[in-house]
Design goal:
Layout lengths: L3 E7 L3 H12 L4 E5 L6 H6 L1 H20 L14 H25 L3 E4 L2 E5 L2 E4 L2 E10 L3 E3 L12 E2 L1 H4 L8 E5 L3 H12 L3 E5 L11 H14 L2 E3 L2 E9 L2 E8 L6 E5 L1 E4 L3 E3 L6 H4 L22 E3 L10 H15 L13 E3 L4 E6 L2 H7 L3 E7 L4 H6 L5 E7 L5 E8 L2 H13 L4 H5 L9 H10 L8
Parallel strand pairs: 1-2, 1-6, 2-3, 6-17, 8-15, 9-10, 9-15, 10-11
Antiparallel strand pairs: 4-5, 5-6, 7-16, 12-13, 13-14, 18-19, 19-22, 20-21, 21-22
Helix pairs in contact: 1-9, 3-4, 3-6
The structure holds flavin-adenine dinucleotide and 1,4-dihydronicotinamide adenine dinucleotide.
């Protein structure tokens, strides 16, 4: 047996690496197993960070090409250097993953390079070498869900991984799935000049988000040039020299037709990843969707084995995984770490951004909760006007009796940053009046949040 640890974390994504750091802070001897050549997991290598780098670059490109003129800035002959844009994205990723390596060294966390396999409750084997440990944390993340009949080759039919690496702007990109990945990466290639068609099974986009926001989102993306085929399913794909031919038909059944694309992005969701992990051998229970079952406090049914992040139940978001990483390390140390699942923001980083926290109107109606809603449009916000970004609105939902904020939904400039104010307010169980009576700087986008809070009692000032 090689070294002995207090905790071995399997997977160095946002769940795993944050857990390793917190456990080390709490005085434990920690190792983290990662089979990828770099630390940071899906998020830093092929997810959150490279997608946001491409979203930023493509937004800057589109602003220079189409929006600067409104500000009186005239540039002739704007050209795209996609190779440089991709190289910059690589530099951003490299800096981030090196940052995690630095943090591991700082906290004396051993990186066990290779594939980890649990061979017993207190044993992890990494490429043939066995390590003993008191606790194992499974943080192996997720992978994209395949679509039967649409074979991914990461060149013409791609997942988000290939969709972030294209070396040419496709003439026609067909995106299957109108969720987070489809709309973010669809936006990237639309801005860079592709025709983009989104094929979505349901009759709406971003199904986990508020319906009113989703409708506005579809209208704004439509204005930007994105085309939607809602209520439509893809039943097959044929790849030839001139691209891909998809067969599509109405989701409810009906006449099939063909849709030609240069590149097809499959983005119909992600699923827990536990391949070769040895869960069966040690008897760790999983659910019908292959996710590791926990007791709600990250303990699996096998003592000493814990699980966090995308591999367990809940939204597949990096910040959710990070919070669980901290909570599980604290639980292992005998503390009371926990995550407030009612207050986890979700953000789609398109332009405008879409951000959501707490309950949607649909959820409140279905649960029979009496609520009040306050809305405020960005057209009435001075800063948004100065920026030239007036699309969208803020909506705050509060309990009809107690006025406690139950949810907030924002579509508009920097919505992902604005939602943090509501997250803090909800964490403190604030009322809409608490936010409404808080002094907000002028002129700021945050004033739209305050005005929406005022609107809950029908006393917004600027509408
Ligand atoms: P992961 O980040 O998936 O990390 C798991 C790691 O475990 C991987 O590195 C894997 O190699 C390793 N591993 C697996 N099995 C083994 C084994 N047996 N041995 C050793 N190593 C192993 N979320 C957001 O919150 N914001 C965003 O903007 C965002 N953008 C995204 C964009 C894209 C294109 C994608 C695909 C995802 C995005 N996400 C975003 C989701 C986010 O990436 C995940 O929620 C997050 O990475 C989950 O973290 P995790 O630690 O659970 O797993
Ligand atoms: P998603 O769950 O967000 O969206 C998938 C979409 O595909 C849904 O609208 C669904 O109705 C649709 N769909 C499912 N099957 C279909 C089919 N056969 N044909 C057509 N449409 C179909 O999943 P996505 O976009 O793949 O992203 C996976 C996860 O990664 C997200 O749920 C999110 O948790 C995370 N992510 C987060 C981001 C962020 O925080 N900004 C960005 C990207 C990903």
């Amino acid at each position: 047996m090689a070294d002995t640890y207090d905790v071995i974390v399997i997977g160095a994504g946002p769940g795993g690496y944050v857990c390793a750091i917190r456990a080390a802070q709490l005085g434990m001897k920690v190792a983290c197993v990662e089979k990828r050549a770099t630390l940071g997991g899906t998020c830093l290598n092929i997810g959150c960070i490279p997608s946001k780098a491409m979203l930023q670059s493509s937004e800057d490109f589109t602003a220079a090409a189409h929006r600067f003129a409104d500000h009186g800035i005239l540039i002739d002959g704007i050209k795209l250097d996609l190779a440089r844009m991709q190289a910059r994205k690589g530099e951003v990723v490299a800096a981030n993953v090196k940052g995690v390596e630095f943090l591991f060294r700082k906290h004396k966390i051993d990186w066990l390079r290779g594939e980890g396999r649990i061979t017993g409750p207190g044993t992890v084997e990494v490429d043939g070498t066995a390590y003993a440990t008191r606790h194992i944390v499974v943080a192996t993340g997720s992978e994209s869900v395949p679509l039967p009949g649409v074979e991914v080759d990461e060149k013409r039919i791609v997942t988000s991984t290939g969709g972030l690496e294209l070396d040419r702007v496709p003439e026609h990109l067909v995106v299957i799935g109108g969720g987070y990945i489809g709309l973010e990466l669809g936006s990237v290639w639309l801005r860079l000049g592709a025709k983009v068609t989104v094929v979505e099974f349901l009759d709406r986009l971003v199904p986990t988000m508020d319906g009113e926001v989703a409708k506005t989102f579809a209208r704004i993306l439509g204005k930007q040039g994105m085309t939607f085929r809602l209520g439509t399913k893809v039943t097959g794909a044929r790849t030839g020299n001139d691209g891909v031919t998809l067969t599509v038909e109405p989701a409810a059944g009906g006449t099939a037709e063909e849709l030609r694309a240069d590149v097809v992005l499959v983005a119909i969701g992600r699923r827990a990843y536990t391949e070769n992990l040895g869960l069966d051998a040690v008897g760790v229970a999983t659910d019908a969707r292959g996710r590791v079952r926990t007791d709600g406090h990250y303990a699996t049914n096998v003592p000493g084995i814990w699980a966090i992040g995308d591999v367990i139940d809940g939204p597949m978001l990096a910040h959710k995984a990070e919070e669980e990483g901290i909570a599980v390390a604290e639980r292992i140390a005998g503390q009371a770490g926990h995550v407030n699942y009612g207050v986890i923001p979700g953000v789609v980083y398109t332009w405008p951004e879409v951000a959501s926290i707490g309950r949607t109107e649909e959820e409140l109606k279905a649960a029979g909760v009496a609520y009040k809603a306050g809305r405020f449009p960005f057209t009435a916000n001075g800063r948004a006007r100065a920026m030239g970004d007036t699309d969208g609105f803020v909506k705050i939902l509060a309990d009809a009796t107690t006025d406690e904020i139950l949810g907030a939904h924002i579509i508009g400039p920097d919505a992902g940053t604005l939602i943090a104010e509501i997250a803090t307010a909800m964490e403190f169980r604030a009322s809409s009046e608490d936010v409404a009576r808080t002094c907000h700087a002028h002129p700021s986008l945050n004033e739209a949040v305050k005005e929406a809070a005022l609107a809950v009692e029908d006393r917004a000032i600027h509408i």
